[in-house]
């Protein structure tokens, strides 16, 4: 409070004499165009909003640390996994469908996007709070998302569109079952798990490849809301998740997650009864047990939401030596999609923004572009190869070859895929009370949906487990 007062300036640094009264001809006006300080103030204000994320627009984030407690150096040579290593992280949580001002306590998948500022560059693991997804081919992603967003005519969200799409896309059943279960409505971001969801790969010092899935198990315990509880919360507080996370960290009640992986030797992928690169499937724990590798703790709130959260960019393309991608076609497309979105949303130099800037040196030949606000490489050479000591490639970081074969074609991704067993397994592991809530949640979510669509969806529940279909039909008051 007793801080020495600073003089207000324009963005050009020129002292401002009056920030209260506009410049007018006489006390009654009109305004003078000469009042450029007033015009600058409004011109900047008019340009304050940037495009929101096309999905996952509403979110909250915090900084923290990933500490390695286990030893997985036999699977990955990544520096970030060296025993005892501590790495700074940024974790952004989000809901998927709502716009930037949407309420937090809504039934939806939650995003769980991590940026690890490693000494070998930024590793982004852009996951969700569910281990699977609604579709398995990237062709279907925009269609799916449109069913979650607003109807073009009514400008309202449409249960009919959602269930129409899901009932015509059986691969969605596993994720729909999670979404409609207790875990589809977490109490807060602290009380849910995170998953990398896709299969990724590890590469060890001998250049051997392993397939890997990432799991983040909340130490706060899983806690969820019923639809009724959420309705009451939203009535009083639209920012319940943001408030919970922000206050917990301000009060030094730092949330933590146990970090685990499942590992599959490279050759085993040929022999699993399911496609291990299919994003609608999990790897059963019985076959691939969780290996605990570390702990993730959030301990610092961002100082400025726009600079550090709205401008944050996470991309599945960003993997570091020792961690890589897999043939999962959804993951493959995401490798393109995110940086494309960032260039549109934040501009071509988005990775130079402080929150996205690697904490290790960056040596490259990209130059210029809008809002280039660092030294732009100074006078250093801007082409390669060159004779002036510019950065060069290092084959030591080459990945082992990936054996790929097959005729190029558009293969029907629904053919020969079992969309029902794992969804049924999930249904069967729920207690009778959890199943009852699942039936009720689905019945409420189907309110107003034409019976033809409802009956088509009931067929899918039936194939997962007859008791699943019977329970939903009963909750809907439908005869089977
Ligand atoms: P397990 O009995 O070993 O594991 C069951 C898993 O289900 C646990 O990870 C548990 O999470 C999780 N779970 C419990 N209730 C829900 C829910 N409502 N929504 C989402 N997850 C839930 O079984 P399997 O590994 O053999 O898998 C059986 C089924 O469990 C799968 O078909 C899948 O639907 C679900 N599942 C499996 C996961 C996996 O990676 N294998 C991961 C998450 C779900 P927690 O331990 O945190 O309580
Ligand atoms: C955000 C595309 C599937 C998790 C986004 C964004 C795009 C996108 C364009 C906005 C990025 C931005 O503006 O910063 C896609 C496409 C997918 C896909 C094309 C499938 C082909 C998935 C899957 C997951 C996921 C399977 C989780 C496993 C997220 C998260 C965010 C996000 C968490 C928010 C990131 C943040 O906090 O900034 N997605 N997505 N997406 N997506 Fe996806």
From TrEMBL:
Catalase core domain: residues covered: 9-392
Annotated keywords: Heme, Hydrogen peroxide, Iron, Metal-binding, Oxidoreductase, Peroxidase
Positions annotated to bind heme: 338
Cross-referenced SUPFAM superfamilies: Heme-dependent catalase-like (SSF56634)
Gene3D superfamilies, sorted: Catalase core domain (2.40.180.10)
Broad EC category: oxidoreductase
Transmembrane segments: none
Biased composition annotated in UniProt, kind: Polar residues: 7-24
Reaction(s) the record says it catalyses: 2 H2O2 = O2 + 2 H2O
InterPro entries: Catalase, Catalase_3, Catalase_AS, Catalase_clade1/3, Catalase_core, Catalase_haem_BS, Catalase_immune_responsive, Catalase_sf
Molecular-function GO terms, alphabetical: catalase activity; heme binding; metal ion binding
Protein name: Catalase
EC numbers on record: 1.11.1.6
Co-factor(s): heme
